[in-house]
Protein 1
Amino acid sequence: MSLPACPKCQSEYTYEDGDNYVCPECAHEWSKLAATESDETKVVRDANGNVLQDGDTITVIKDLKVKGSSSVVKVGTKVKNIRLVEGDHDIDCKIEGFGAMKLKSEFVKKA
């Protein structure tokens, strides 16, 4: 039986420790259940815990500074037709007056 590689450092020298896998090289531990789930089943949720999907309309719940600019995306700004992407900023969208932007799901709610 082959064990999965470490998701953090890709080391192949992982071992089992109870219900977890452990990497001896970077000391990362993760559950066996997490290892069996695929990345495609990742669920993106808004600030209220509602599941977001591609094409949804969202509302910004906090003033967000635009990096590299002095402008701000105001509270209550509606964003239509979002696209979910991988990464820290998991929403890709176009905001009228600002253009293409990436947002974190923790600062939006489903409209």
Protein 2
Amino acid sequence: MKSVAFTLLLFSSLLTVATNSFAQSKDQAAVAQAVEALRLQMISPDKAKLEALAADDLSYGHSNGKIEAKTAFVEAFTSGTSDFVSIELTDQTVTVVDNTALVRHKLMGETLDGGKPGQAKLSVLQVWIKQKGTWKLLARQAVKI
């Protein structure tokens, strides 16, 4: 009888772990899709789509120390002040805890800020929150590498 109870307990525990892992993987995939959507918007910005990706309380930190709220972030991309020609993300990790996700990656990009060609080589931390079933960028900080 003890072995049957132990087997049931073990099976229940494994099922719980598998279910939690699947749920987290599903959220991780959704966050990764949001990160990719943001990457594409940083190259070819659309005001409505950028606004939809960003939380109202966004804090967007640049590698030069400049910090922008949501309105300034959207304006910088739609006006061409921040102008990425290409962006490649590597070494990305996504960690989800409840309704918060931490994303770290390396960003290599070609820029054309103010018509002047340049390169961006950054290490980036993004914080995403799940609001009404949608992942929104809450914070981002980049440092030069």
Protein 3
Amino acid sequence: MAGTIAARLAELGIDLPKLPAPAGAYVPYTISGKMLFISGQIPMRDGALSHTGKVGSDLSVEDGYACARVCALNILAQAAAACGGDLDKVARCLKLGGFVNCGPDFNDHPKVINGASELMLQVFGDNGKHARFAVGAPSLPLGSAVEVEAIFELL
């Protein structure tokens, strides 16, 4: 049924952000067969980073969670662009990969990346269940607190 995901986004009060421009020599997504690969998304909102710094020292785990959610909103915006604006063409979310800008003693990476994972579940229901990794990094592009990438299966 066309518009099911759009209706769910509206029900959740979610407006997808404008697409951020790539920050390097890459494309925001590629499609191979029924696989959609979304490049790592940082928390860009209206042309600016919403969260910078290290989670665990500059930012709380809750801030990191919110940051991962912004990254996931950008993932959904990229997926919509790849699908001609129709997220109903997404069969399911297969995998998310999350990088958390943090110090060596930080170990709550999964709690941070849950911000992205839980959004996929809210938007896609059971089709939002996915495999995942959540790891720490000593730095991320532009000082971002979090970066998240995704792989989707298309119909």
